[in-house]
Structures are given as C-alpha cells and as structure tokens.
C-alpha cells in the first residue's frame, strides 16, 4: 500500500497510502459517551485544549464555543455515516438548490435533536452555567431574507428527521442579512459580520473545490466526423470551495449536509498576463473572484438586476451540479441511470440556470448528445414558484447574460429554439401564445425569462399553497398549464415543529409531553388530541399560565430593545415579517391609531400591545417610510399618559429567527393581512398558529388552509377575496370609502392635522397619500372598514377569557398539517420518490 507514496504529489495522497497494509482503524474508533460527566469533561477539554483558554480569563464566546464543540463531536460519526449512505448506498437522492438558508442558531436544535438536553443541562449546571444562557451567545446564521430562506431551513430539518437523503446547496455569504437598528424612527442598516468569531458548525472541504467559469468566448471546432463541438475559452475562472454544515435529524441517527460554496481566486493565474508583466493584475483578479460570495442581496420578493447577483446564481448552480456529477461518477462510468438517481429541486427561479448548466456539463464536458442530455435534464429538474408579484419575476437582459456566460447563453438559445419548434406543433398558429411563452422575449432588447427556462426544463412545477398554485395555473402560467398540465402541482408550505414549537416554547412543550406523550414531536397529528381538552377549566388554566410566562419573556425582550414597558395582561397583537406594501403593515398601524383616537374620545377598549417588526430592503423607499410612520405613531401613543396602561405600539428592531423564537410563543393575535392574491403562502402564520395564537387575516396564501383546518369560527376573517380584488381595480375610490365611514374620516383627519408628523411631515404623508390614491394596488382603504370590524370581534372574544383560550388551544390542536414533515412527505411522494435511510441511532 505504501509503495505509491513516492509517485503521488502530497495533496493527492490518501490516508490509506500511508498506513501499512492490514492495519485497520475501524475497530479503534472512539465512541463518545453522552453522560453528564463525559459532557462536562468535553467542555473543559475544548476550552483548555482546543481553544487554549482558561475560565478565569476569557470571553463568554469561548464558553459557547467549548459547549458547541462538545455537541459537534457527538454528531460527527453520524454525519460521516450519513454521507456515506447518501453517496454510496442511496438509490436516489435530492439536491435542494437555494440562494438562501435562514438557519438561525444551531446549538439548541442540535442538543435536542441528539437528545443531549438533560445530560448537557446537568453537566453545565455542575459548571455553574445554564444551557439557555450559553445558547443566547450564538450569532444567527442569517443567510436569507425571510420566508423563502427560512422555508429551506425548515425543509432541511424535516428531511433529516424523516431520514430522506437530501443535500442542501447554497452560498456561504461573508455578510448575511443586514442587522437593523432604528435611529429617530428610521431604519439603519449594519453589515452582518457573522463569521467574525468563526463558525463552529462548518467544516471546510478544500479537496472538493471546483472551478466555475465566467466571461470569455465560444469557439466552434469541427471534428473529423463533421460534427461541431463548442469550446468555452479565455474564461475568468473562480474557485468554489465547499463548507459543510451538519443538519441533524430528530432522534434518528441521521445527519444530513448543507453544502455552502465560498468563492476564492483560482490558483491557475492567467499566464499570458503574467508574462506580459501583468503580475499585479493577475493577482488582483483574486479580489473580484472573492466578491461573488461576499454579500447576500437583501431584496425579498423583488428582483435585483445586478450582474453580481447573476454571477452568484451561476456560481451556486455550476458548483453544485459539478459536485453532484462528481459524486455520481465515483461509482458510475457514464450517465445511464443518472436520471433515476437524482432530483434537483429549484427554490424559486434563482437557481434556474441549472437547466442550462446541466446541459452544458453533459454535452460539452461529458460528451453526451443533445437529446440524451435533454432527456436527463428534464427528468431531474423540479421548480418551486414562490410568488406571483411581477416585480419578483426574474428576467435577465440577453446582452448581460450573453456577455457574462456566453456558452450557457447559447444553450438557452438552443433550448428555446427547440421549444418554439415544439410549440408550432403542439399549438399551431397561436403566435400570441408562442411569444408569451418564449424563454427569450421577442422584444427589441430581449430578456431571458428565468421562470420559463425553469418550466421548460422541469418535470414538476409547484406553488406553495393551494390558492397560490391555483392562481399560477389559471393566471401567470396558464399557457404552460394548457400545454403540460401533468407538470403542475401544489405543495403547501410548513414549518418544523422542532424549532417552532418544541424548542422555542419549552413550557408548552412540557405540557404537551405530559398530556400527549413525547411522540408528538415527530408525529404532529397527535396534537389533534388537544381538541377535546379545549374547554376543560384545568387544562385552560395550565395553558394560560404558560402563555402568561411566554408573554413575560417577550415583554422583557421588548423592554430591553425599545425601552417600552408592557404588561402580560394586555392583548399581544403581533405583525412580524419583511416590510412590504402587499403585506400591509399599514393596516395594523392604522388600527392602532383608530384605537388611540377612540380612547381619547372616551371609548373603552381592552388593553392592547401592538408589536410590529421587520426589515425593509435598503432600496425600498416606501417600506422604509412605513417603518418611519410606525415609529412616529408609536412615539405619540407611548408618551401619552391619557392612554397609559391601555395601548402600546412598538416597532422591535432587527427581526430575525432568534427574535421570532421569543415572539411566536407569546402572541395572542397573529396579523396576516396581505392583499388577497399577493402572499403566496406565508409561514409566519403557521408558527403563530402552532403556538396558540388566533389569526386575523384575509383569504390569502395558506391563511385559506389555516382557516379550513381550525374552523371558520376560530379565525377572524375580513377583506376582499382574490376575485373581488380584481373587480375592484379600475373603479376604486378610496376618497368615497373614507368619506362614507366616520372612523376612517377621523383617522385620516388626524394624519392631515399632523398629529404624527414628529417634525418631519413629508415621509409619512407620502405613505398616507399613497393609501388614499385611486391607484393604490394594495387596496388598503378598501379593506380597512372590514378590518376595523374584525378587530371589534377580536376584542369581544378577548373579553371572554375562556372563549379566547378555547380558540387558542384549538389553533394548536389543528396545526399539524402545517408541519414541514407533512410538506416533505408530499414532495417525496409526488416529486422526489426517495427511500428513507435507516441508520443506527
Ligand atoms: C417565518 C419567518 C419569516 C416569514 O414570515 P411571513 O410572515 O411568512 O412573511 C420571515 N422571517 C423570519 C425571521 C421568520 O422566522
């Protein structure tokens, strides 16, 4: 075995090249114990030996690291075993391609999924520490904007917990989602330097790096047999280095992988530049390469047409597909069988260049025929649409994409040429439809429609809630649905009940353990057994004790971050999500102002605390103005002694996953008030429901299914339906609605009087004027009277505490269909068709 060490370069040497023949290490593997004493020793050893610190003289960060390393040690063997199973034994696997993963913190999740909670808690107690305090020291991994990125994170948890061989592929942004602070009511953005202290949960795998090409040109070469091959030459290459993050399943011995690519310069410097004396130019190319994975674009549900964003997308797609092909070729000679062994799920159109890139790799690099390559591609790609908003539908200018990615662009053009030919056969003489469906638009300045590329290249196309999928099929993708109805399906989103109930709400979780047994954590249907207890006095009283403590914890967070003191006896009315006009945070503030004016007029309302939080895209002027408006209104209300103890309004800065873990167990009322037809699904709505909040909402996204699950009597419905929204446009007159409703007249008069201007009238008047405009796409004023009515019903029920508690319990009881365990089973049954892995626990 050692004979070939001399002939190999050191970086190609395998461990077994060095170990003498017959010497096996397998039976010497250390099996780490997970009792209290071993865990305690681990923490001490990591602090002193791995990190080189002593307790007397080190920052708290090191305590966190020592604990995290001790936990990480205990998932390493399972992780290795799972990777081997996925790469070698699994007959079929899925690669989930996503530009975003909003993971949040990892420690608590790992501790509980590995069932280390009790022992580790006891070990830390012996060291004078509490696990909870240690957990708070971890920085969120915020590699996503909002719902789409968090969904990817919940999917990974459920796949691992179901034992599905699914690998997440994404980008390791140096700077994740910006941190938000509020200065004089305005949003201020700060870079999220999340890797500053190092990241315990990633393992760099430089040996699996690959090269991604940009720029250059395409050369045509005629071969001896007359066929023509395409060579992509003179490219600027960027090295993609993978960092693996473990994804532990719940108590099942499975640890899946999230593989995040980081960009660095290639070692192959451009030699001609070198020789021409361009040494510094060649070396400084390193900077532009490292730029690719530098920063997450902070736009949620809206396109950012920057070239760097396109480079990021191609970088993710090319590196991930090369990795999948590499793994396949470890155990196979050619590509026969590949289409039966792989599925690539595209999280929105962001990774839809995968269609062109897989074609390029198969045709150019692996010399398959076009037809064979296309047959494989269209059997492995599956596309999830996340939005109907026109501003979110990605279109890249053909000129831009052609300059940056000449060869993939040629391939897109060829795919489109063949697709249009197919259309002439399938839908003859429907030229209008052909133009609408074409991947490349027929304009003077053509664009590549990424959704069309994804649809033409995929065998499955899904929306993310029943209503959304129907609207896709009847509206945006109508023509495609006529052509290929079998490709379209719905997969209603979910959230993982581990992070979003069991771990973020330990008090409720304990109660559930006691009354249901512990199986509910992996079989959420068991929650249905709560329904018969909804009216029991003793169960209600346990329920309310817990909810009160959760509200106290949120009140404390609010006090720390905003200085405002609220009582847990108030109705906690919560809207937290990205700031967007379609989500209508404005409705929520306008209601708060309505209650305020009522109180000043001497009318009674039950004490209410309105909490709003969310980040605005830095370039989204209107969303930022809404933040300012909320803060102005809050300033007036919170400082008015006349409403002391009756009404508080807070805009909580820096909404993220960890904040939501405190917020959702403490909400009484969940605000899900988007304009019907605009919110594809929503997942915040599901987290709240699971934790016992009652929803006030429109018939939009997954609200429809939430209301169906919990029963209409236990949901506060208001607002126009999708059809009514469509009808409303064209003859919409907010001025008449305002004039016809005294509540609205009083409300808008207060803004006109400058009650909330805080010396800076322009900004917030813009927001109010937009809502009053006949062209307001979000129809805020149209829904406002019904919203105020629904809020009155909320108050009426709230004043009957037993009735409210019953509703709260029923919301949790009927929330099981919004588990991502159910969502992943649906994807697996209809799209992925994977066999669950079984590994020793
Ligand atoms: C769940 C979640 C979201 C999505 O919220 P929606 O209300 O569905 O828009 C966004 N951000 C964070 C941090 C979340 O946890």
Describe the structure in your own words:
- The chain is α/β, with parallel strands linked by helices and 841 residues long.
- It folds into three domains: 1-89, no CATH class; 90-105 and 140-491, Rossmann fold (3-Layer(aba) Sandwich), CATH 3.40.50; 540-825, Rossmann fold (3-Layer(aba) Sandwich).
- The protein has 34 helices and 24 strands.
- Strands 1, 4, 7, 8, 11, 12, 13, 14, 17 and 18 form a ten-stranded mixed sheet that branches.
- It is an enzyme of class 2 (transferase).
- Its EC number is 2.4.1.1.
- One of its GO terms (biological process) is glycogen catabolic process.
- Its cofactor is pyridoxal 5'-phosphate.
Structural key phrases:
single chain; 841 residues; alpha/beta; Rossmann fold; 3 domains; 10-stranded mixed beta sheet; 6-stranded parallel beta sheet; 34 helices; 24 strands; 47% helix; binds pyridoxal-5'-phosphate
Task: Enumerate how many helices there are, as a single number.
Answer: 34
Low-confidence stretches at least 5 residues in length (pLDDT < 50)?
none
Q: How is the main sheet built?
A: 10 strands, mixed
Distance separating the two termini = 34 Å
Number of extended strands: 24
Oligomer: single chain
Look at the structure and give the CATH class of the largest domain.
Alpha Beta
Rg from C-alpha positions?
A: 28 Å
Based on Cα principal axes, name the global outline. globular
The CATH architecture category of the largest domain equals 3-Layer(aba) Sandwich
Secondary-structure content class:
alpha/beta
Bound small-molecule species: pyridoxal-5'-phosphate
Task: Write down the domain tally.
Answer: 3
CATH topology of the largest domain: Rossmann fold
- Strand proportion: 5-15%
What is the helical fraction, as a range of percent? 40-55%
CATH H level, superfamily name of the largest domain: Glycogen Phosphorylase B
Mean pLDDT across all amino acids: 95
């Amino acid at each position: 075995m050692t004979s070939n060490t001399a002939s190999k370069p050191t970086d190609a040497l395998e461990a077994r090249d060095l170990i003498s023949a017959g010497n096996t290490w397998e039976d010497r593997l250390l099996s780490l114990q997970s009792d209290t004493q071993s865990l305690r020793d681990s923490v001490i050893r990591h602090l002193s030996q791995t990190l080189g610190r002593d307790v007397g003289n080190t920052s708290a960060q090191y305590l966190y690291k020592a604990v995290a390393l001790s936990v990480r040690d205990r998932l390493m063997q399972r992780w290795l075993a799972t990777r081997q199973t996925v790469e070698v034994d699994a007959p079929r696997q899925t690669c989930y391609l996503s530009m975003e993963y909003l993971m949040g913190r990892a420690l608590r999740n790992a501790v509980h999924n590995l069932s280390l909670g009790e022992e580790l808690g006891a070990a830390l107690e012996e060291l004078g520490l509490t696990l909870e305090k240690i957990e708070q020291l971890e920085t969120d991994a915020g590699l996503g904007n909002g719902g789409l990125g968090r969904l990817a994170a919940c999917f990974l948890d459920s796949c691992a917990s179901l034992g599905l061989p699914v690998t997440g592929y994404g980008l390791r942004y140096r700077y994740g989602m910006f941190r938000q602070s509020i200065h004089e009511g305005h949003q201020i953005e700060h870079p999220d330097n999340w890797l500053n202290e190092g990241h315990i949960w990633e393992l760099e795998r430089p040996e699996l790096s690959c090269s991604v090409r940009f720029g250059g040109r395409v050369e045509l070469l005629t071969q001896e047999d007359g066929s023509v091959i395409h060579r992509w030459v003179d490219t600027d290459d960027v090295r993609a280095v993978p960092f693996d993050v473990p994804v532990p399943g719940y108590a099942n011995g499975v640890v899946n992988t999230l593989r995040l690519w980081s960009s660095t310069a290639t070692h192959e410097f451009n030699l001609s530049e070198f020789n021409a004396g361009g040494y510094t130019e060649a070396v400084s190319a390193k900077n532009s390469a490292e730029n690719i994975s530098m920063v997450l674009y902070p736009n949620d549900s809206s396109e950012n047409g920057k070239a760097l964003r396109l480079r990021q997308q191609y970088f993710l797609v090319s590196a991930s597909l090369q990795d999948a092909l590499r793994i396949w070729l470890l155990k196979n000679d050619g590509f026969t069988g590949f289409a039966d062994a792989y599925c690539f799920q595209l999280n929105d159109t962001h990774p839809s260049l995968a269609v062109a890139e897989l074609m390029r790799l198969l045709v150019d690099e692996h010399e398959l025929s076009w037809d064979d390559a296309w047959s494989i591609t269209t059997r492995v790609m599956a596309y999830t649409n996340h939005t109907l908003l026109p501003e979110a539908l990605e279109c890249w200018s053909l000129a831009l994409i052609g300059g940056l990615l000449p060869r993939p662009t040629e391939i897109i053009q060829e795919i489109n040429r063949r697709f249009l030919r197919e259309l002439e056969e399938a839908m003859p003489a429907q030229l209008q439809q052909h133009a609408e469906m074409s991947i490349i638009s027929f304009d003077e300045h053509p664009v590549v429609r990424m959704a069309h590329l994804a649809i033409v290249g995929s065998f499955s196309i899904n929306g993310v809630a029943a209503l959304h999928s129907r609207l896709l099929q009847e509206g945006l993708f109508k023509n495609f649905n006529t052509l290929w109805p079998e490709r379209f399906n719905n997969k209603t989103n979910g959230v993982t009940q581990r992070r979003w109930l069991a771990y973020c709400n330990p008090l409720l979780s304990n109660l559930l353990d006691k009354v249901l047994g512990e199986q509910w954590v992996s079989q959420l249907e068991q929650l249905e057994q709560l329904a018969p207890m909804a009216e029991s006095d003793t169960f209600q009283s346990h329920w309310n004790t817990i909810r009160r403590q959760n509200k106290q914890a949120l009140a404390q967070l609010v006090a720390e971050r905003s200085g405002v003191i609220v009582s847990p006896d108030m109705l906690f009315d919560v809207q937290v999500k990205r700031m967007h006009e379609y989500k209508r945070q404005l409705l929520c503030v306008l209601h708060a102002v309505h209650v305020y004016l009522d109180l000043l007029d001497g009318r009674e309302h039950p004490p209410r605390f309105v909490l709003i939080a969310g980040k605005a895209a830095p370039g989204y002027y209107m969303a930022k103005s809404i933040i300012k408006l909320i803060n102005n209104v809050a300033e007036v209300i919170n400082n008015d002694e006349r409403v002391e103890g009756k009404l508080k309004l807070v805009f909580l800065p820096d909404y993220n996953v960890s904040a939501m873990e405190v917020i959702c167990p403490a909400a009484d009322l969940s605000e899900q008030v988007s304009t019907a037809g605009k919110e594809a699904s929503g997942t915040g709505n599901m987290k709240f429901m699971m934790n016992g909040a009652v929803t006030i909402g429109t018939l939009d996204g997954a609200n429809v299914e939430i209301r169906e699950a919990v029963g209409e009597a236990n949901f506060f419905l208001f607002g126009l339906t999708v059809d009514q929204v469509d009808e409303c446009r064209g003859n919409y007159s907010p001025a008449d609605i305002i004039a016809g409703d005294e509540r609205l007249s009083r409300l808008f008069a207060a803004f006109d009087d400058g009650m909330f201007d805080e010396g800076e009238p322009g900004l917030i008047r813009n927001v109010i004027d937009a809502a009053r405009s006949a062209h307001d796409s979000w129809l805020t004023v149209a829904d406002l009277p019904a919203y105020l009515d629904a809020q009155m019903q909320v108050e009426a029920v709230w004043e009957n505490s037993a009735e409210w508690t019953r509703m709260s319990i029923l919301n949790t009881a009927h929330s099981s269909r919004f588990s991502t365990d159910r969502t992943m089973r649906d994807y697996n049954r209809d799209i992925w068709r994977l066999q669950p892995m079984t590994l020793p626990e």
